[in-house]
From TrEMBL:
It comes from the Bacteria. GO terms for molecular function: ADP binding. It comes from Streptosporangium carneum. Residues 20-45 are annotated as: Disordered. It holds the Pfam family TPR_12. This is ATP/GTP-binding protein.
Amino acid sequence: MDGHAEDGGRVYQTSGDQHINEHHHYGGEGAAHAGPDSVRRPAVGRTPVVLRDRLEVLERLRKSVAADAGGEVFVLHGMGGCGKTAVAHAFFQFATEIGDRVGLWVNAAERASLRAGMLAVAADRGASDGELLAARNGLRPGADLVWERLDRSTESWLLVLDNADDPEILWDGSWLRTSPRGTVVVTTRRAAARWWPGAELQHIGVLPREDAAQVLCDLAPQSGTIEEATKIAERLGRLPLALTLAGGFLSHQVLAPWTMDAYGRRLETGKRVELIDQGADALSAEDPRHLVGRTWQLTLDAFDARGLPEAVALLRLLARFAPEPLPLSLLDSSEISGVLPRARTETALRALLDQSLTELVDVGVRCVQTHAVLLDSVATATPPESLATLNSTAGRLLDAAVPAIPDAGPYNPRLRLFAPHMLALLRRVRDPATVADVLSVATRLSVALYRTGDYLSARDTSRTAIALAEQTLSAEHRLVLSARSRAGRALFRLGKYAEAEAMLHHVRTTQERLFGADDPDTLDSGHGLQLVVRNLGRHDEALSLLRATVTGRRRVLGPFHPLTLRSQASLLTMLSASELAAEENAALLSLPAQCERHLGPEHTVTLGARHNHAWALYVLGRFEEANEQIRLVVDGYERRFGPDYPIALSAQQLHARIQAALGHLDSAVELMSDVVARREDALGPDHPFTAASRELLTEFEEKRRLSSR
């Protein structure tokens, strides 16, 4: 491969030669690594007072963490609500407190949470900031990094992959592997052996009769006899989740305590939940949602009787979201007033917590998490006349939580927490107007993820949102096309140029036909398409697209709109020396000053314009001016993002070029040596970025050797 990348460019194997420039522009503040991707604490709330039964399974698991044991995978399978996570948590405590293992806990329910959790595992096992950035940017396989670090761990470990109910997620990217350094435990509802080759399957079923009764007595010891508890346990199918909800109810009735006998009678004769089929799978007689529904409905009745209708409303609102950690900050918003008064949210949440209807979890951010079976049961039993208000309120809460104008910046793990809830809401809603509103927020979330370098999560969020929204909206709906355009941009950043070009070309053509060539959405897709075409080596076509985008944005948005200035700044990296020197392009060289005047000195577009301006000055041979400009750019990037960030390395590499052009070869070699070392650490020695930087370093070293003769 003769092509090489310059200043943050990417090179991927194609036919023919390539010379690729790709500039990454980031902004924002703060460290890149603070946040909720903690894996040392299981993301579970209150655990059972006593773990009844399960002793045989636990004994087998405990043997796996004996001295020098490792390389095993255990799959704990069973229906929802049977206590798989409780067993995994009990084993986790044993392994960390007695077995001298490092405990690592990852939520494997969704692609985004699995990827973020596994990269946090890599960080815990010593992965560098640069390696993690490269994995999030899609520049190196994330799973390879994780398992390389697990294999090299100096400490033995236990890795729990919780809620892996979609095994395809684990196999897509090869996240599930074995290592002699540790033991893996998976919890799942999917028991088919084909999903778990080489693993030891352990079934977790409902509790034996005596143990089920004892759970109720553990939770509500003053409410009745073991015989009464046995009758209730049988009516609830001996399902641990249903027993926990029943026990929570019985133990928290203070003013008018219930007995087990009274509770049992209400289960038979009282109000029952009618599970309305709203497109969900048909419920069999054994479906755990039936059992859970009988318990929580009695609790909701009690809330109404105690004058706490807000607790009922809050639980129904939570059922619009996913069974994953939901930041409490999302609920602390004025937008919740559509369902319950904001001032009553605290009281309502405490009531749900007291009755074990939801749990507090801490994943670096304080969150609330509700069991999937309970959410499904509540969602299917919610009165149809309430759905419109609940859905619109859930959408407004997410809208308020996502940045109104996403800015470029370092990785923000808090953003990822909103993705599964956004997609869960899209699965719930059917009204076209609400679907459109939620899709608009989901696309904005995808943009926010993209602009913090989390390209994989951005792609997955856009792709899933499109698939869900298209069930209600047409494929040519403006918002669907906009979401698909963002997905195309993410594919480009992930190096999937052919897919990105096909998607963006189709979207832009459709937008031009439907909305016109100067529509802002059409122009946005055009800007994205020119990036792909340029990196495929079709310079003239890319330049034509970019010029058309600049002209259109100037006409529609105005000459000083951030998007107009951003497209103009891109021209600085595409024009030759003769083109830059031409009279008609003279104004381009004053672009950084225009950006600073209209947007401010720290605006992302201003920083990017300065970087591109330094490149243009280098191309023009104005090396002293270029050197002064790029030093400011390097300082700014490193101050805001750290020295390992791709754009910081891009700027440092350009600084090295300029130093070499000025004849300061010692400085050029020093700067490039640092770039090579950081890229080898982040990407490995064979990555095209690393190879291109090493080639440039070799060139500078040879020049220095010759000049010293």
